[in-house]
Amino acid sequence: MDFLKDMPAVFITAVSAGVLTLCASIIFLVSHNEKKHARQYWNRISGFMELAEQNVSYPLKCDEILIGRHASADIRLPDLSVSRYHAILTVADGVWTITDIGSKSGVFVNGNLVKQRILYENDVINLGNRKLVFRRRRVDNVR
Q1: pTM for the complete prediction?
Q2: Hey, which end of the chain has fewer CB within 10 Å, N or C?
Q3: Which residues of 29-52 are buried (b: 16+ CB within 10 A; e: fewer)?
Q4: Long-range contacts at 53-57 (CB < 8 A, ≥ 24 apart)
Q5: 34-63: per-residue pLDDT in tens?
Q6: Side by side, which strands form the sheet with 49-53?
Q7: To the nearest whole number, what is the mean pLDDT of the chain?
Q8: How wide is the angle at C-alpha 62 spanned by C-alphas 89 and 143, nearest 5°?
């Protein structure tokens, strides 16, 4: 008889667990869908661009990217000819810009010294002794 007394509590507990599971599943599906759309939106804004040198490429995964020798740089170029904080890449409305942020050796785009410049596909960027190509992202060799 005690079992029958506890039946409503057991039923309510089971229904509550089912509702919580359903809510958690809905939240998971919605967040997964939002993440997918955010990734597609970012790829459309960024133009699937990367910086590449020799056998290494650096995908441009955010709207502001610090390039330099320092460990905190988003793209770290461990070369003494590169300043600790050499340049910054930014994107707005699908347009990428590189800006020299006080480097000692300067930023060169296609052989011209620049303080700030809009980048176009296949532009060659020299930071110290490093030569990087601004290009559409490729699948292999991504770091």
Answers
A1: 0.69
A2: N
A3: eeeeeeeeeeeeeeeeebeebbbb
A4: 53/130, 53/131, 53/132, 53/133, 55/141, 56/141, 56/143, 57/137, 57/138, 57/141, 57/142, 57/143
A5: 877 766 766 666 668 899 998 899 989 888
A6: 56-59, 49-53, 130-136, 123-127, 107-109, 112-114
A7: 87
A8: 90
